[in-house]
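Encode chain A's predicted structure.
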Amino acid sequence: MSDLATLAIDAHGGLDRWRRLKSVSARLFQDGVLWKLKGHDGVLSDVHIAVDLRKEWASHRPFMKADRHTSFQPGRIAIETSSGDVVEERFNPRDSFKGHVLETPWDNLQLAYFAGYAMWTYLNTPFLFALPGVKTEEIQPWQENGAAWRRLKVTFPTSIATHSAEQTFYFDERGLLKRHDYDVDVSGGTSAAHYVSELEEFSGVIVPTKHTVFGRQADGKAVPTPLVVSIDISEIEFNE
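Encoded structure for chain A:
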């Protein structure tokens, strides 16, 4: 890993602490224009999320109905009942997004897949920099609103489902996350500038509890409107 990747991991609690944890759960309040654009306004506005920290798995509940939840893995997405019965499932779910653009609506499984990999990515950052096959490289710093942020280019292997193969993470002088840029492959490569704030400590891990996502211009600046996605995270619990 690069020195900046190591600094970021240490600033958010350290790899030793992270490796003693198995999963995290939280409550999400979500808003923004994306959900309506994709045909699912309100579905994820108030949900609980569970994320595995040892493998790529996540689950949202409730999903569509009170007794249903999602089960996300890179190669499979499913909607299941509380008793474990499969309502819908799709293997190789990323293939279903071929030809999509920003305005293309998603079906229920596509929504579940996007939400699953996105929250797995966010709740494992920056510790996923240490995963096998992930490459990190510090690039030129960034000035924004009078602040100077160090930037890390991260390249993910194809085995990890996430927004795009290359993503950029911004950190302050202490190594705390401030911003996260990516292109949303499953939505036609739409460019995003994802800001985080209100970082709090839970079980020795620093977690951003407020996320706001905007479009991103070619020069790297965020598009101030509309607000694409907002995520407020509460009731965070890590499990060993």
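The first strand starts at residue 23 and ends at 31.
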